[in-house]
Design a protein that fits this description.
The complex is a heterodimer of chains A (186) and B (302). With 186 residues, chain A is mainly α. Chain A is globular. Chain A starts with a helix and ends with a helix. Chain B has 3 domains: 47 residues, no CATH class; 118 residues, no CATH class; 107 residues, Alpha Horseshoe (Serine Threonine Protein Phosphatase 5, Tetratricopeptide repeat), CATH 1.25.40. Chain B has 14 helices and no strands. In chain B, helix 1 crosses helix 2, helix 4 crosses helix 13 and helix 10 runs antiparallel to helix 11. The longest helix of chain B is centred in the C-terminal third of the chain and has 31 residues. Chain B is elongated, with a radius of gyration of 26 Å. Classes of the chains: A mainly alpha (186), B mainly alpha (302). At the A-B interface, helix 3, helix 4, helix 5, helix 6 and helix 7 of A face helix 1, helix 3, helix 4, helix 6 and helix 7 of B.
Amino acid sequence: MKATERSAASDEELFELVQQDNERQAFQELYQRYSRRVFSYCLRAMDTREDAEDVFQTVVMNIYAKRDSFKGGSFVAWLMTITRNQCLMGKRNKRITRDIDEMVDVLESSNNEAKQDFALNEAVRESIAALPEEFREAVEMKYFDDFSYEQIAKATGASLSLVKVRLFRAKKMLLKMMTPYRENFL
Amino acid sequence: MRAEELLAKYLDGSLTQAEETEWISLLESSPDLAEEARALGGLEEALSSQKTILSPADQAYLDSVGERALDAMALPLDGGAAAAGSSTAGSGITGSLTGIVSAAIGGLLILGGVAYLTLLNGEDDQGLSTNAERNTPEAVAVDVPPADLDQVPDETQSASDNDAAATDPQSNALSEPTLTSAPPESQPAAELQDPAPELFHENEASAAEGSSTQDVQIEAQVKLQRIYEDIKIARQQLNKAEQQSNTVGQARAALNLGKLYRQLGKTSHSANYLKIAERFAKAAGLDKIESDAQQELLLLEN
């Protein structure tokens, strides 16, 4: 497959090439499409960058190692399921050693330190965190990861209309939670 | 109800021409609705501004992982057996492959090893048993510890954890033999079972000289803490250098991080930072750092 064809190919077509022909360029194209989003997801989901890197690498490894277990359907749904499960597993493993981590005080969060701590941004983050899980996830995928409605629907296994409803309701809930900041949005 | 529907479509940008006319008419007759629409539009902008922005160092890291994944593809991996075979032992590609595999395994082993020390100290006496139902995200999220921490976990246990994490939404093919279940060939089994060999071997020697078990544990913890503190400092230096677009600083900090992670036995992290260091050093013409990074990478592969 030529480079132009690859860039136009669907995720599923590309992954089929990875599965059947072990085609590196197809894998590379998929990696370019999704690595930033998956890594961003890991950074948000995990407490530290180190954990996010651990999870991300395991996801990348599993995408290839378990390629034969993808039997069709939506590639992005499969990818995000693996990513979410790996994050949950990573958090669970982290919980086991939380005491030790606190003892050695290594939970550095350089990203947080580098960020400017505007009250509005904090309020947005806190409000998003307070949303019900399926709402929060849809908001993060839409606004943080640039997923389209269709991609969110595929990734979460929800219908397109349900995703739209969730996002609309989520925004209304956020607006309500952020009443003190409402004038900032006008 | 109609207003809500139109509001949702307005925010999506999916109003038809007829709906747009109706929407404008609604806005003119309802200032509250107009304000709601403006506020929601503003909220969307605020949400978009929260987007995770990856730095050049993040991109360099992603490139590094991507390259290694592509390297791994050069191997026949089916069934996982090939990865454990000896025909390609010692090759650079194998090193990359095992680096990725051992990252997952090694990471868990380090956590297990550290937790083991905690247990020896009597700080964690919870009953820890395997959760057989941990394949589902829900179970993972709710149930606490799956591993038996009375023992430092072996690679098989860690690999099965990795497999469980990669739940396939369609076929749930968790038990298939995969790359993750194969022990990395370039890393001796003894090292696998000892997550931070340099630290723990020193501790064993101390114990032989008559130090009390507790002293040994404290000593190990202090050493671990020092390394993590150094990592924290090196990360801060890397961030600062990145903000200042200081390629030399980035190369140095990345090299330090690579060395520190190697001391922890985190080969994959180490390799990633060393490759980043190598890249920055090459870009800045820093032969010494480039050479150091290459030597460290060789050490990792061996």
